[in-house]
Amino acid sequence: MRVLLLSFLACLFILSCNDSKKDNETTQNKKEPIVYDMYEPSEMALLMNEMYAHNLKIKQDILDGKMPAEFPLEFLKIHSAELTKAKDRNATFESFSKLFIQTEKEIFNQASTQPIEERFNNAVNVCISCHQTNCTGPIPRIKKLLIK
Ligand code: HEC
Question: Signal peptide location in the record (predicted)?
C-alpha cells in the first residue's frame, strides 16, 4: 500500500514538469481537488509559481503605464530552493539562474535607457531558455507573460 502511494506521489512530481500538466490546468476548476491536496510541490515549484504571479503583476503595471517598484528579493531564493530532482541543480541551472536574476533586476533599473517592455521580455525569455533545458511543460504558460 505504502509503495503504491509513493509511486503515485512520484508520478505527480514527474507530472509537474510534464506537458500533461497543461491539459490538467484548463480543466482544473471542474475536477475534484483531492489530487491537488496530496501533491506537495517542491520549494522551487512554489517559488516558480510565485515568480509567475509576480511577473504577471509587473506586466500589468507596465501595460498600465506604471513603473514596477522594487526587485522582489524573494526571487533570490532561486539560488538555494530545493528542487524536485536535486540533480537538476547543475552548472546549466546555475548559469541560467544568475542570468535570470540579472535580467529581472534590469526591469527595476531606473537608469536604463532600454524600453521597459524590452527589459521585461528579456527576463521572461530567460525563464523560457532555462525551461528549454530541462522543464519544457510550463513554457506555453510562460510565453503568455511576454508583452506583445
Ligand atoms: C534557472 C532555470 C529556471 C529559470 C530561470 C526559471 N525556471 Fe521555472 N522551473 C525550473 C525548474 C527546474 C522547474 C521545476 C522545479 C521543481 O519541480 O522543483 C521549474 C518549474 C516552473 C513552473 C512549474 C511549477 C510547478 O507548479 O510545478 C512554472 C510555472 C515556472 N517554472 C515558471 C517560471 C517563470 C515564470 C520563470 C521566470 C519568471 C521561471 N520559471 C524561471 C527552472 C527555471
Answer: 1-21
